[in-house]
Amino acid sequence: MAQFNVTELDFDKIKASIKDHFVSQTKYTDWAFDGSGLNVLLDVLAYNTHYNAMVSHFSMNETFLDSAQIRGNVVSHAKLLGYTPRSTIASRAIVNLTIVAGVNPPPFLTLERGFRFRSTVNGKPYTFLILDPQQAVLNTADLSVYPNGKYVFNAIPILQGTLKRMLYVVDNSVQNQKFVIPDQNVDTTTLRVRVKANTQSNDYAAYAKFTTLSGVDPTSTIYFLQENSSGNYEIYFGDGILGKKPISNNIVEIEYVYTEGDVTNGATAFETVDGVSGMILQTPVTVTKSYGAADRESIDSIRYNAPFTFVSQNRAVTSDDYRSIIQNNFGNIEAISVWGGEDAPVPDYGKVYISIKPTGAEYLTTAEKTAIQNVLKGKNVVSITPILVDPEYTKISLDVFFKYNPNLTNRSKIDLQSVVLNAVGTYNDTNLKRFDGVFRYSQILKQIDSSEPSILNSDCRVYMFKEVMASSTTANYFDLQFSAPIYRTTSTESVMSTTAFKIGGIDHYLGDAPISGSNDRTVYLYKSVEGNTVKIKDVGTIHTLTGQVIIGGFTPDTDTTIRVTVMPNSNDLAPKRNQLLEIDLTTINVTGDIDTIVVAGSAGAVNYTTPSRHR
Q1: Any idea what DSSP says for residue 294?
Q2: Is residue 124 packed enough to be buried (19+ CB in 10 Å), middle (13-18) or exposed (0-12)?
Q3: For the stretch 91-105, what's the b/e string if a residue is b when 16 or more beta carbons lie within 10 angstroms of its beta carbon?
Q4: pLDDT digits over 473-504, tens only?
Q5: 444 three-class SS
């Protein structure tokens, strides 16, 4: 008797299995199962079996965090680990505002919660608002310009979105009553939850979000926040044991900011929407452009972060703990690196270093750093001090060469060079620009070779560079740390080069020479006179083993950006700690040549050329 494969998911194989089962029965030996009637019945049976198998398969997948595909199920599994997915984060900005006082001005002026501003990003207007009331004192220092005085509001924090308010009635006859926030794009960090006795009362009790069991008792005014199966956030209150339980007919007021998410980052110019009666509002001055906005956490991010949060238990001890807490609270993070002070170049015990590359920018703003420090307060070990450091970028410049067979493509050499440039850009976006992004020489060549069938082989020269701003008014000193050791050689040929800068109206450059008996090299200032190098003086040192270049002791005629380029000791480059590698696509030189041997056979070897190792 034929056996059914109960785990089979392929329709045709299921049908064949059913058919084999019937054929193996003696009573059906003379039936024509390929006939139209019985074939339809077999289809029905196979479809039913197929559907049931697929449902069982999908259902089993949804029971595990790693394999679940439905957001509600992923969120449910994360909840068991004590993890609440991050909501949409509103963009923040800081502005200064001056208001010209009218007749008989009060000594103080307050901008209330919800006072609105407007800005435009990519041609679309967005509303920003004040979340906390701002107060300024009447300033009468310049009555000749402002006869009635003025109010100066400095460093007003504003955020993008619309302030919304929802009211709910407590009904304790409903078991485990939840209060759902109807907007999915809510920034839950802006939630304000208050409870009053009834609709006639004006006395509110403020409730705080639950963060820890420490100190929680039956009188604690706390609320709990979670994402439900529909993707909406909802709050609920204590049960009278863990947290205070509101009584029936109490009124719950929930205020929050509904935001547009990460499309509002980068707003630079603001104007006021609301006014103040009898006063003139000047154009706001932007202190910090809008930053920090992020869409709500994705399913993949929840899968990744939830286990780490469970392990960390909302306390920062290991580097993974710090990373998990920061990523859970801030969405504007493209890459993050955390390391202990014992792993610093100069060991600094009792410190933990954090470096973050924000989305769409190279460095965090001061406000973002302050916000991160505030989140870490109370979570880190008392004896450990977290320190935020900026990423250190090493740019990569490439000279790319490739051979191609013109018989395998309709593209011109120029078109092929563009294809290669795009392949390098893809490699850059996929593998670099993060703290664990290693530049692997063989992989980028593979990416180039596979970018077009006609490309037969490729080669490239790898260089690292940094740019410095040399001052014309003060003594210059630069300590450059590259992400890899610098080429070690005893040759008098320079391993470092720079762009030109003028001293006394003449182009000058920096070069280097070996130091006898040492791996270090001396950096010298020179100029070119009739093709000859004229050394002026020594101005620094290259430490090839550590990738450090120290330069100083020269002053150009004008403030000048100087590009300092060095040859790495290896074509594979690996960043450490806060270092980031990135290919600068504007400095890439791409050269394509026809492979003369492929085209002309052995006769083509006469004109076959290969690129030199160095420029």
Answers
A1: B
A2: exposed
A3: bbbbbebbbbbeeeb
A4: 988 999 999 999 999 998 989 999 999 999 99
A5: helix
